[in-house]
Design the sequence.
């Protein structure tokens, strides 16, 4: 619920964040030039062990060879006014580490969410301590209100080292509204997309005419019946029953929008490898599928340590309202906003929250 940390606030953490890190990139058609200056910044804060690029659209992956002066990267994060501060990279910055790069071709299934689940499932025992999951469209598209608010990867590294998870998309604090990552679970899980495959999306690709709508709707039905965590006949699957039953009792769930995040290996391994395998299979039904939107709302739920009951009460107290519907697409259902960080519950409750919960709020 607190304001977004600036780069200077994170410098002490960054100086101690010399952790081995890997990057997982979901690639379709866009250039990766934007990533080179980000790698330069990250290399000063972490040891890059490998870069895995999953090519899913049949296009050749062209790796940038050097930093071009026309490229710009977020250097100082986000100012208190919400402005993203940029610095043009220098031609002498880090060249692309070809010796650390692996390109893997996958079928065009499930977009970036399938890519991430596939990597967790297949590289489960070889993950680096810190893992970044990013997509090639990081600076190409997205909602107008959100695409300008992305953390640079070196700041994400500091947040993930400190909290175990970092969302690429920063929280909003505009027009007096403070948006949180926290959502009312019962509202969030009633999400179902009201937007079908559009003409420019799937309808022009006859080889990808898989129905957009999931067989399990809304999201709560997918969670309880799809066979990833539970099925209709026997309930929770044995290998995830204890942790997912605990999650199902939480009043608040976090959600990370935008298709990019970083997390620790230990957070991924809180869940068995078989669960990630099931999730990857569930996201293989087609190219643009509703299940991908469910997964987008689930990454932080699976990778962030749940808040205590007292922490949830404090977060709810600090939020004056919740969003039930966002425009016509239900994108931010249940999200807490208009958070009053000067309220009594903020002063008494939020300041006492564990560091990961404070930083994510």
Sequence:
């Amino acid at each position: 619920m607190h304001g977004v940390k600036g780069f200077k606030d994170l410098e002490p953490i960054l100086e101690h964040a010399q952790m081995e890190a890997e990057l997982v990139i979901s690639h379709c058609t866009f250039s990766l030039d934007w990533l080179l200056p980000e790698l330069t910044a990250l290399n000063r804060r972490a040891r890059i062990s490998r870069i895995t690029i999953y090519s899913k659209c049949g296009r050749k992956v062209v790796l940038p060879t050097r930093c071009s002066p026309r490229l710009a990267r977020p250097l100082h994060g986000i100012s208190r006014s919400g402005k993203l501060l940029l610095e043009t990279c220098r031609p002498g910055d880090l060249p692309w580490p070809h010796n650390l790069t692996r390109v893997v071709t996958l079928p065009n299934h499930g977009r970036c969410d399938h890519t991430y689940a596939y990597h967790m499932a297949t590289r489960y025992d070889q993950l680096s301590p810190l893992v970044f999951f990013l997509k090639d469209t990081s600076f190409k598209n997205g909602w107008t209100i959100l695409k300008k608010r992305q953390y640079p990867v070196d700041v994400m590294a500091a947040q993930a080292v400190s909290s175990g998870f970092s969302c690429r998309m920063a929280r909003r604090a505009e027009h007096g509204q403070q948006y949180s990552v926290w959502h009312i679970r019962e509202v969030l899980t009633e999400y179902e997309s009201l937007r079908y495959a559009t003409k420019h999306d799937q309808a022009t690709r006859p080889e990808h005419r898989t129905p957009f709508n999931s067989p399990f709707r809304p999201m709560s039905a997918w969670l309880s019946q799809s066979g990833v965590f539970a099925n209709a006949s026997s309930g929770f699957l044995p290998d995830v029953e204890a942790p997912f039953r605990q999650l199902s009792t939480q009043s608040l769930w976090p959600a990370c929008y935008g298709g990019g995040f970083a997390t620790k290996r230990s957070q991924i391994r809180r869940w068995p490898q078989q669960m990630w395998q099931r999730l990857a299979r569930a996201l293989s039904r087609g190219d643009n599928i509703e299940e991908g939107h469910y997964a987008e709302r689930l990454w932080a739920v699976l990778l962030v340590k749940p808040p205590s009951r007292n922490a949830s009460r404090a977060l709810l107290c600090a939020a004056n309202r919740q969003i039930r519907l966002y425009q016509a697409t239900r994108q931010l259902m249940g999200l807490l906003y208009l958070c009053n960080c000067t309220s009594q519950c903020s002063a008494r409750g939020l300041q006492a929250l564990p560091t990961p919960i404070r930083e994510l709020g």
About this structure: The chain has one domain: 7-360. Residues 84 and 148 are 7 Å apart (CA to CA). The two ends are 4 Å apart (CA to CA). The mean pLDDT is 79.
